[in-house]
TrEMBL record:
Region listing for Disordered, in residue ranges: 31-65
Keyword check for Cell inner membrane: no
The protein's name: TTC12 protein
Gene name, Swiss-Prot/TrEMBL: Ttc12
InterPro entries assigned to the protein according to its UniProt record, in alphabetical order: ARM-like (IPR011989), ARM-type_fold (IPR016024), TPR-like_helical_dom_sf (IPR011990), TPR_2 (IPR013105), TPR_rpt (IPR019734), TTC12 (IPR043195)
Amino acid sequence: QAMLRDEDTEADFQRFLRRVDDVTNLLQGLNSPDSAVREKAIAETEKRLQEPGAGREEEEESRTMVNRTLINPSGTARPEAVDADGFLAALEKDAKARAQRRRRNEQLANALKEQGNEAFREGDFALAIQRYSEGLEKLRDKQELYTNRAQAYLKLREYEKAISDCEWALKCNKNCLKAYFLMGKAHLALQHFTEARQCYEKMLQVDPQKEKLFRDCVREARLEEKRVRDEQRAERELQAGNVAALSIQELLQRISSPGHDILYYTGGIRLLAGVVNDCTGQTLFRTNNGFSILGNETVRGAFCAENKSPAEVELCVSLLLLWQAACAGNEENQRVLLAQPQVGAQLAELLSSGSPQIHRETLALISLYSHNENGRRLLLKQDLSRWLQLLMAFVKSTDARAESAMNILSDLIGEERFQTQCRAMFATDVLPLFTQLLVCAGQVEQAALAPAVAVLGSLCADVVLRAQLAQSRECWQACLQLLDGCPGASSPGYQQSVFAVLGLMMNLLLESNGTIQDLAVPISGRCLALLSHQDGRIVTRATGVLSRVLPASPSAVEEVLKGGVVKKMLKFLKAGGQLTSSYAIKILSICTKSSRRAQEELLRWDKKLQVLLELLEAGDELTVGNAALCLSQCLLLPGAASALLGSSVVQLLLRHAGGDAHRTSVQQNSAIALGRLCLAEPRHIPQLRKLNGLAILNSSMKYVQGS
């Protein structure tokens, strides 16, 4: 539909703009350095001033968006000739008067706007519109008054007027984000879906940083368009005599009729769940008030009973199955269900009931919500502390309920509001339960164990929670106990749990505290044992944990050296794998820095240090820096520098020492290695001189002396 327009006001506005352009051109001509242009402008000015009615054009400022210029408002007779200075003086005097009037009107308009805002906040939208309109009578080009009035019109569902005000706001400011937003809302309410999307796209063009708002608006428009189309299709099918539609109506009438026993209603709900199994059925169920089923006293009594009889359990399960069928993939139905009185609170009660069957179907219903963004938002409006306790309690179950509960927690853990709740309950509820879960890994449903650990790992993104968790000796010991194995240690579920626990440990090792130092030796021992695991993912993560825990304890370094860590790391480096290699070279750099034994073993297993030379050519700066550090430590051994004669070591180290890597450790470690190389074996110096590297060597000596 075409947007509403005030044609008279629009024409008046355009005429005014043309006159402003004319006056601007005259002023430019009067100030021109070209005498011919200036004389022509003076003549044109005299002609305009002498035109009949030229001085009788006084109009109120509210007639246009911008005040008109009145050259001579008094209408008195003019001399035959008007010079440029006189014209400009009159123009300046008139401009000052108009500016003063505008300031006064702007003050009045602002006061009226504030009165309108106050009325809007109090919910008196009609009064708000009146005040905004009075403000516009004072100042017609005030954009805020148009958008504020449009917002009030939206509240009163006067959508066409809201659109018109948004158009006028855009005449005042073509980049008015609020105008596009409100216009889109108005078009959406009128079911003008194309126009609504166009408004939202304009909004994003004006401010690309509003992408989240744009996505939310587009999502709302799509849902509304889908809802309208579903209802239209359902109506067409109903008019055509669709059997399913008739069945839904009949069954709802049967369930809503009073005076029957519980088995009667259970049977009707079961039949209804069988026909509410597609988009049309879901829409008909909603439009025929199917979600008001709890209005039936018998159904509500069974649903809300604390100690349910077998018959009440059966009805409750049937009702949950019906809601699953009605809400599967239908976000509008999900919203309507949780908007029903008692439903949200009662779902939590069902989770704490004594019926495993009710537990399973309640968890299945909640899962429908947790799988989509809008559904999660609806869930997060409930009592989160209660839901968190209930869901986490299911983790200890030995059946499918544990997996369902953990999957729901995994879906919710990314939501900020849920994380806030976890933070508040962390020490008292979250941590003890997860610790117990890890300790009892052998008795827990394996499918739930890995998601549970992953949820705990997600919480580590919060720095405060990660610090608390890293200080918990109980948590570390539980992780180690799980890594020790259990009766199902060879199962895929258990291996997935080991992988998740190693990831959790890597996150915790971003912290540094006394607990980690105390447990560094057993942590290193468990990880060293996992380096021969058949699952390459577990090997990589175990290597990563080693690379982070070894700096915490020299004793841990000595233990892994006894276990042959140098030989294992060289094997990983030769086999390739970028992530594993980056961990392996970091481990070697840690070991060689603190232990001469590690230096000797590395030289024994890689006599010409060929592995380190290859790593110096890697594209990853962290790997290069650790390789240079490791090489510089090995060069302290007799004969190590001589073993590198004839290699490209000087060229490689020189390139990195004098390079522009982002990590300064690359230049520093390479410079130290280069200095130690030439000090230990002077026969490398001619090659250095040939490459014009003496200046770099001299500058590197401060690093060598400092090291």
